[in-house]
């Protein structure tokens, strides 16, 4: 499992977290078509926490 925290930090983001630069880099990586193709080729499943929660609710 790889967790990406994608964010386009605003001027207030530094008041919330000091990870703005890393989160912006995560966002840019996830938007890159070559990286998206790599993930697909390697069989990564790109999802969100909301989707994971919805999948868990459907389990018996």
Concise structural overview:
With 60 residues, the protein is mostly helical. The protein has helices at 13-16, 20-31, 33-41, 49-57. It has one domain (13-57).
Question: What do you see in this structure?
Answer:
This protein is mainly α and 60 residues long. It has one domain (13-57). The protein is 57% helix and 0% strand. The protein is built from four helices and no strands. The longest helix has 12 residues, at 20-31. 0% of the residues are buried.
Through-space gap between termini: 23 Å
Output the number of helix runs.
4
Proportion of beta-strand residues: under 5%
Structural class: mainly alpha
| Overall 3D shape | flat
Explain the layout of strands and helices.
Layout (H helix, E strand, L loop, with lengths): L12 H4 L3 H12 L1 H9 L7 H9 L3
What are the main properties of this structure?
flat; 60 residues; mainly alpha
């Amino acid at each position: 499992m790889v967790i990406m925290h994608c964010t386009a930090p605003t001027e207030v983001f530094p008041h919330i977290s000091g990870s703005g630069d890393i989160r912006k880099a995560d966002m840019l990586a996830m938007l890159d078509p070559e990286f998206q193709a790599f993930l697909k080729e390697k069989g990564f499943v790109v999802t969100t926490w909301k989707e994971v929660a919805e999948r868990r609710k459907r389990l018996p």
